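hi!! sorry for the late reply, been swamped w classes. u asked for the two structures so here they r. pasted raw, havent cleaned anything up. first the sequence of the first protein and right below it the tokens
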Amino acid sequence: MTKELVSDAIRLLLQFKPSLKLGAGQLYVTALQHAPKSVLRSLYAHEIGPSYILRGIPPGWEPYTSVLRGCHRAYHATFAAGGKYIIAAGMSDNAHIIKVWNALTSTEVGSYAGHEGRITALACSEGASFAVSVSQSPPSVHVWDVITGVLLGKLSELEGPVNKVQILQGDGDILTTGNSGILRMWDPATCALVASHNLDKNYLITALAISPDNCWVGFGSIDRTTAIWQLDASEPARTLGRHTHSAAYEITFTEETHNMLISLADQEICFWNRADGTLVRSVSLLPRTKDLALSPDGVHAALVSESSNTVAHSVQLYQLDNCDLLADLTGHSSQVNSIAFSADGSNVVTASSDSTLRPWDFSTALKSSNQITSNEVFTHTSLSGSETGITLVLLAQISPDGWIATGGLLKWLIFSYGEWRQWS
């Protein structure tokens, strides 16, 4: 029970954070009015008292854990340091900026604003000692401190735009690829070029992944082929196969078997056997898959799909072995641009053009089964003393979306983000 209680307490603080930052300690008690059915609510139900403005009790916590702001038109998001941080790229005051949040507390801990153009790729070292960001206009790769935002160096000798970037496990070397099919390795301390290897693909590299043991590199290219290469080996890369509709834009190695999972930009995910290069199975997806992320164990996929006449505002969670739709994460008011799983697969983060990022608890999303969404707003009623039968009301209650309702002397005040509204 202790674990569940701690989890509930964290969710309560995150969900009611906008109001709790503005009010006194007693608001923690009034927040319980809106807490869902949980260990926390059952233990402290006697503290709640009568409810005047609450409509119903939610069956469980909402799938999203918080709403992160600060990136206008956020277009890229990822977890870092094993899920400890969330890093996102977007706009701020007409400048391209990268923001860093503590994933547990949803508190902003750092930022970096050194690029002139749109950030097209991000990677963070395993220990979060440094991050690498890529921009193609003009071509640049920056290495910077995750917390302080201090520029540590810039990669030179790029020889053209960089499309993909990865970092070897253990805060190791930086790997980059570009339009010419050459893999380059860089020392993060000096930003100097260490080695380069021709992947035998004179094409733009569209996807890049490193196995957890730092031994293998998997990549996809614009010619729709997917290949694998043993790092630092003299043998050439081995082509696994060619996809039907388009090039792979996401590649990962599963945690247990290290078999490669390749997600296609259009309609397909393929599972390859790394040892013999055979296709184990393929999974058909909806057409026009805008973005897709795979769980580390290769069991689940989170994807944004769109039809020809709609913009995707939601994210679908699928079970890959049978293609079952498990949950539909709704709440963003504009297009979802990026999805990522945490290293342990317990959380998903989405970045949207509505200028917000939303971390989602994966297990809660599955339990909710489309019953709870992150835009759920509880109905409030403006009450006067005559309506409640009370002539002197001294209480405060808050809703999950940050509204505070206070009552006293026949007056009800609703407070939301700096604006008071009064009913009498």
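now the second protein. again sequence first, tokens right under
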Amino acid sequence: MGEDDGSPCVAAEFEEYARRLDEINERRERLVKASRDVTIQSKKVIFAIHRATTPQALAAAAQQLASLRSHHITQVARELSAEDYWRFTRAHTWGLQEYVEAASFLHFRQTGGLLTLAQVNGAFEGVTDRDGRTFHVHAADYVLGLADLTGEVMRLAVSSRGSVAAAASGDGDGGSAGRGSSKQGKRAREGEEAKGEAEGVEQRGVMQRAVQRQWGVYWWWMPMRASCSFNGSMRGSVCCPGAAS
């Protein structure tokens, strides 16, 4: 057998392998960038929700979230097919978790309830992946996003405590909405099957501490509620999500 027998075929194969690896690395880099943009824009939506004190302000935050879906989530979806979702999960999971956190926080402020996975994915109509199928978030990213939501609800509860303490009048059940969300969050946590045991344990620890702080604020609120004379002026405010008529 000659020294060069088969060499052109072997070289061609390795060139093909190199091309595929380059393509995978380039897609991963594009996903990392797109996911970073999703994270940044989602945090902006969360900050806007925290500042919102009127239905109009919440509507503006909802528009920001819709723009995020149509632009940045679309960029993520275009780089993925069904099997690629898990292949590149480390490149895009942080952005999708942050999006779920923003979407569920907005839903909580508007309704006082917990956003479901079906509702999250129902908002992706018109957002398609590389195969032309409607993009959707998988359960693992949804649950991890809800784990982050508890931190935002905790911050809302703490800031609401200051608002209530400074108010001399109002009427509402500022603690009950946070309490209900905490219970739903506990149920979601108990059914969680998060990807990555170490990551899931860390997320659960953070969520547990946030839920405990929410309950602390709630039990502080109860005697405050019983001792004050309220006239309804605080309903629908930052401390009473979903209470506006």
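hope this helps!! also noticed smth abt the second:
Residues 164-176, 188-195, 218-245 have pLDDT under 50 and may be disordered.
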